[in-house]
Specification:
This protein has 265 residues and is an alpha+beta fold. It has a domain of 99 residues. It is built from three helices and 17 strands.
Length: 265
């Protein structure tokens, strides 16, 4: 919202509301009631955003429910959005302003089928967005319990999201529901890289401990530990042949490991 919109639209509306309601809390209650009645209303693309901006002008939005709303032109600049619920809302990138609302984003990944976008942040959260031809819609938020989510990767069938981070554990989550499925323990340091082989049978993970671990994804078992790197492993990627891995570390070293497959412990 521009300064002119705020001056000539937002403030006059609030001034009129102040003549009808005695306190700011009563105005907020009234606006929330209007928002609740506007859920799943796709015909008016501006009402939700205008109500949102009015509430924003009256204070922060922590612990507020803004699910299943069209929030066109909603201004989220320089405010805290912790515990704010946007599930199912139309968050149009062309008209919605996000600046510092969420924690720092440090990992992102698209699902192979192009239907999901995962975002990991420094507050242990993984945001799963439904991506279609229109605007991305926040599907749900996973609490990874792993402090900084430094690495995320989708399984080749796009049904599982894998995360790694500060505490060394690797977690598997069901994309559709956010349900925890399994964990790969073993690291004593940060996990910074995750990648799948094209057939989904192998999972590679790189860590600050300078090792790469190759996992049998279906059995959830460790196959081997690669130790060529002399510094933190930052990146891993499988060749389409599914048995060759390229990795890179913080000291600019790039390594190639071939012959990786199930049963080569």
């Amino acid at each position: 919202m521009s300064k002119d919109q705020e001056k000539f639209i937002l403030k006059p509306i609030l001034e009129k509301l102040q003549t009808k309601f005695n306190t700011k809390e009563q105005i907020k209650k009234h606006l929330r009631k209007l928002l609740e009645g506007n859920k799943n209303n796709k015909s008016d693309r501006y009402l939700g955003g205008n109500l949102f901006n009015l509430l924003l002008h009256l204070g922060n939005l922590e612990e507020k429910d803004f699910s299943y709303l069209v929030l066109k032109n909603a201004n989220l600049r320089e405010i805290s959005l912790q515990d704010t619920n946007f599930v199912g809302s139309d968050l149009s990138i062309s008209s919605l302003i996000f600046l510092n609302g969420f924690s720092n984003v440090i990992s992102v990944a698209f699902s192979p089928n192009g239907q999901w976008l995962a975002i990991g942040d420094t507050n242990a959260q993984i945001y799963i967005w439904k991506v279609g031809e229109g605007c991305p819609i926040l599907h749900h938020v996973i609490n990874s319990n792993n402090f900084w989510v430094r690495a995320i990767a989708f399984s080749p069938d796009s049904k599982i999201i894998t995360s790694g981070g500060e505490y060394g554990n690797i977690h598997l989550w069901e994309v559709e529901t956010g349900k925890p499925l399994a964990a790969f323990p073993g690291y004593l340091d940060r996990v910074r890289a995750l990648s799948y082989s094209a057939n989904g049978q192998l999972l590679a993970s790189g860590s600050d401990d300078r090792t790469i671990r190759i996992w049998d994804f279906n059995r959830k078992e460790l196959i081997t530990v690669l130790t060529k790197h002399q510094n933190r492993v930052r990146w891993t990627n499988f060749h389409p042949n599914q048995h060759t891995l390229i990795s890179a570390s913080q000291d600019n070293q790039i390594c190639k490991d071939s012959g990786l497959r199930i049963g080569n412990k």
